[in-house]
# Entry
Amino acid sequence: MSKATEVPFATTHFVRDTCLCFHLQRAARALARRFDEALRPLGLTSWQFSLLMALNQPAPPSIGSVASVLGADRTTLTAALKPLQRRGLVTVAVDADDRRSRRLKLTPAGCALLARAVPIWRRTHAEIDRLLARGGSNRLREDLCALIQRRARASAPVRTPRTLAP
# Structure
């Protein structure tokens, strides 16, 4: 590598030590592994638990709304639904009002599994809460939500009076 294009090793250490994205990714993987291990006896991953929880609504949500809640794209969500469908935990049905759209619903088996998973989630979550300083979980959650909301506002299309017309 030529000196002109070389990044000093000190920069590598600086990025490793200060990059929020790097630290969030590492923390997210560590948390996911912890929940994956806790939920393994039920045959669920943390992602599948989150997906089942997102489907736990009074009315069957659309794929798009669930993808939005989970911060996933529709293709990723559709792929994640397949094993849950094969296990009989989720159904995907054509929306009666819009035949192009699909609605997702927990089956009775999905509801029962979710009910068994919630106490495991609560226990695991309490263990993690204890690892953080007093009030740390709430502060972390608030800061992460603020980042997500700012990102959503920054990527939202700018509406001009012309696009707001009746």
